[in-house]
Amino acid sequence: MSQTKENRVCVIGLGYVGLTLATVMAEAGFEVIGVEKRPHIVELTNKAQPHFTEPGLADAMKRAIASGSLRASTSVDNSQPCGTYIITVGTPLNSHGKPRLDMVEAATHEVANAMPENALVIVRSTVQIGTTRGVVMPILQASGKSFHIAMCPERTLEGKALLELRKLPQIIGADTQPVRDQAGALFRRLTNSIVQVSSLEAAEILKLVDNTYRDVQFAFANEVARLCEAFDVNASEVIASGKLGYDRTNVPLPGLVGGPCLEKDPHIFAHSAQSRGISLEMTQASRIINERQPQETVAFITKLMRTRAIAPGAKIALLGMAFKGVPATDDLRGSMSIKVLDELAQAQPGMDIHAFDPVIDADTLSQQVCGITACQDLQTAVRGASVVIIANNHPALGEHPPATLLAMMQPGGFIYDYWNHFSDLSAGGWIKDYFAVGNVSRRTS
């Protein structure tokens, strides 16, 4: 497939963000070159095989690869100049909890070497405020070439990425109107919904605000859960009832808060503020609340195990290992279920932990998660367990009511549910053996 460089797009980084974007852009009529350092992902991509679960992606990739509109490589090809380069590499936190920029810098150097004059360079990775101007721009300037630069942050939801790339407003941040219009024209090929902001920094901040706001909301819900537990009140009842017919309150239900965005973006937000001498107390407090939840809840679980004289080597079933279940994903990045597993291993060494996830097959789970016996189905994981922990919100984990689960378990066992899957059920004989976040105190004495 031969096209002009104006219609050729290079997407650097074929992780979740890059691969979904590259595929949708190929379907929109661009010639897309995806660049990824990991050879096995390049090989899979060129075979039209996604390396993660995303509804509709495999079929879309097959169409794009077959038509020649998408191909992958391990490096930016200088011999095929592109009109646009989009940086979508990861920005994980380092061991000190600060955002890493080495992958952004490396990708930018590749772009600087390969780009033709007047190329459009778009930063789509989530970055600390000022990175596009202070890190990416100087590397590009050192090439001596003219270029245009924009910041267009990714905001898709795992499990709905292909739909949202066509539906969500695309944020376009640049310093001048001509560049905003140029980047807007590119993304208008995907969606009619374009939102222009006046600077690179405004776009960087916007993305961080979106995810930090959600983190703060979830932290408040978890605070409500702690309070309700202290007063022997059902937090799920309080939160759900408070919303009915009252639009001014919309507190989410409590639960584990993690994932590749929420576990790091508030930290990036806070570190950005610290660079200007500002402390974001609410942001930092929310992270403390959400990050300590595995430790606090496992402390309750182990105390209840001692109260019920459950043996140290008893079987524990951990259900739902991906960082979320709705929309369904197989993504283990930032999974709080793994944090729960780590806390269990410290609190109860020698426990026989069996894990099941409705999306991740047992072989993959056993390769990616240490210290577990991976199970192919829920019944195998639960059968004979003394403790069942429901750790994500996949609907399949709420299909078997507590009475059914308890019937498969050891006598005296109990269920701990992080997601209140059964809060709408009338209490039965199982109530003394079922515990959920925000509803535990009254049955523990």
Automatic annotation (TrEMBL):
Domain of life, per UniProt, equals: Bacteria
The answer to whether keyword NAD applies is yes
Write down the species.
Orrella daihaiensis
Keywords linked to the UniProt accession: NAD, Oxidoreductase
Domain UDP-glucose/GDP-mannose dehydrogenase C-terminal, chain residue ranges per copy:
317-424
Q: Name one Pfam family in it.
A: UDPG_MGDP_dh
SUPFAM superfamilies associated with the record? 6-phosphogluconate dehydrogenase C-terminal domain-like (SSF48179), NAD(P)-binding Rossmann-fold domains (SSF51735), UDP-glucose/GDP-mannose dehydrogenase C-terminal domain (SSF52413)
Family assignment? Belongs to the UDP-glucose/GDP-mannose dehydrogenase family.
Source taxonomy lineage? Bacteria, Pseudomonadati, Pseudomonadota, Betaproteobacteria, Burkholderiales
Where is the signal peptide, in residue numbers?
none
Protein name in UniProt? Nucleotide sugar dehydrogenase
Cross-referenced InterPro entries, in alphabetical order?
6-PGluconate_DH-like_C_sf, NAD(P)-bd_dom_sf, UDP-Glc/GDP-Man, UDP-Glc/GDP-Man_DH_C, UDP-Glc/GDP-Man_DH_C_sf, UDP-Glc/GDP-Man_DH_dimer, UDP-Glc/GDP-Man_DH_N, UDP_ManNAc/GlcNAc_DH
